[in-house]
Amino acid sequence: MKEHYDVVIVGGAVIGSAVAYYLAANPDFDGSILVVERDPSYAQASTSLSASGIRVQYSNPINVKVSQYGLEVIRNFAEIMQVGDDRPDLNFHSGGYLYLAGTAEQAQVLRECHEVQRACGADVVLWEKDELAAAFPHLRVEDIQLASYGLSGEGWFNNTGIMAGFRKKARALGAEIVTDEVVAIARDGAKVTGVTLKSGAVIGVGTVVNASGPRAALTARMAGLDIPVEPRKRTLFVFDCADSPEGSAVVNDGRLPLMIDPTGVWCRPEGKYFLAGGVPEEDPAVDWDDFEPRYAEFEEQIWPALAERSPQFEAIKVINQWAGHYAYNTLDHNMVVGRHPEVENFIFANGFSGHGLQQGPATGRAVSELIAYGEYRSLDFAEVGYERVIEGRPFLEKAII
Fold it and tell me: Where is the FAD dependent oxidoreductase domain (predicted)?
């Protein structure tokens, strides 16, 4: 490890690893890169504990385009991230997403989102209840006013695989990745000058990238800055189904999508089982080390909604559960990406609110461009920059799970 690095990335999960890869792969950037990751097992990383989905069904064009690029990377991941004979396959399942609207207000949101999605070239359709029932015969649709379904370009994939692929390729291209923890960030007026590691090392920096997930606010505070990101707990449940509806769909070769019920409860196939979750009725910030599942959510919230939606979800049994953290942006549930306007060599890549895995490739590319060129050259991330945090101006996203 050297005494100075041009770029120090705080956090080595999918966002930090993606930034490192895109910087290292850019022929116009010849600086040194250090990724500092406190947990080499990534056992509690949001990346490792996520449901690992990707969708284009958003209400803002930037979010749609970010996922479209993410899908392009995922589909070509083995080729892009090849190191030697290792070609990491992310095992992408193109199951699609299915949003169900149970009220006139929810239906109107789907229609508004659909216009944005189609303008971006997304392969999404709106269905009335009879079309929904024909496509997915296992569903009860009497209360449904409208459905939105991704015909292609959506699904789920290997979450730890994408992180490991970025990390391994970044290292092969010259980035250094160390197991340590940033415990202090030094500033000289409007410039970050260095970081102190838990091991005692003091390192000079050219640029610091905050990619520390749910701990983003802790990292920002070390530099005397702030970001409205806090850890929110999400419990995921794997359940077995006595009479599985998988294979019964009339579309997509019988495969079921990730379905989002009007209640906010969602589920999707997971091998021979199903994976499910939802937004807790009470959703406070939690301690950064609190990963105890909320077991009661299944009986109280998830199973009732699924059983109401399909008779085949009446007889189900939990076989596993775990809790992960959303890096929850309390301002508007959207990512915050870009430089601090006053401390310009401090870059945020935070607040993904559960979307970091699918938004990682485009975010890594964007941050690398900002460092290498001083501007965005692919997708313009200006509207999700930090300025809106200072101004208290939400960049609202209607399609939140």
Answer: 6-370
Look up residue 15 and give its two tokens: 């966002």
Q: Provide the pLDDT confidence category of residue 299 given band limits of 50, 70 and 90.
A: very high
Does 399 have pLDDT greater than 80?
no
Say which residues have a Cβ less than 8 Å from residue 86's Cβ, sequence separation at least 6: 168
Compute the distance between CA of residue 334 and CA of residue 350 in angstroms, rounded to an integer. Answer: 9
Q: What is the pLDDT of residue 397?
A: 83
Rounded CA-CA distance 350/13 in Å is 12
Q: Give 268's strand partners.
A: 275
Number of Cβ within 10 Å of residue 105's Cβ equals 9
396: confidence class by pLDDT, cuts 50, 70, 90? confident
Written as one letter, the residue type at 122 is: A
Joined tokens for residue 29: 């950037």
User: Do strands 258-260 and 266-270 pair parallel, antiparallel, or not at all (unpaired)?
Assistant: antiparallel
Enclosing H/E stretch for 317? strand 316-329
Backbone torsions φ then ψ of 374, nearest 5 degrees: 75, 10
| N-to-C CA span, the chain | 41
Strand partners, 184: 196
Residue 75 amino acid letter? R
Decide if pLDDT at 400 tops 80. no
Which residue do the tokens 């579309």 mark? 251
Rounded-to-integer distance, Cα 32 and Cα 44, Å: 28
Domain residue limits, the chain? 4-82+158-228+331-391, 97-152+231-327
Fold of domain 97-152+231-327: D-Amino Acid Oxidase; Chain A, domain 2 (3.30.9)
pLDDT digits (tens, 9 = 90+) for 121-169: 999 999 999 999 999 999 999 999 999 999 999 999 999 999 999 999 9
366 to 22, 132, 351: CA distances (angstroms):
9, 38, 15
pLDDT in tens, 225-275: 999 999 999 999 999 999 999 999 999 999 999 999 999 999 999 999 999
Question: What's the CATH fold of domain 4-82+158-228+331-391?
Answer: FAD/NAD(P)-binding domain (3.50.50)
Residue that the structure tokens 């970091």 belong to: 356
Q: Residue 398 pLDDT more than 90?
A: no
Q: Which residue has the tokens 């996520």?
A: 50
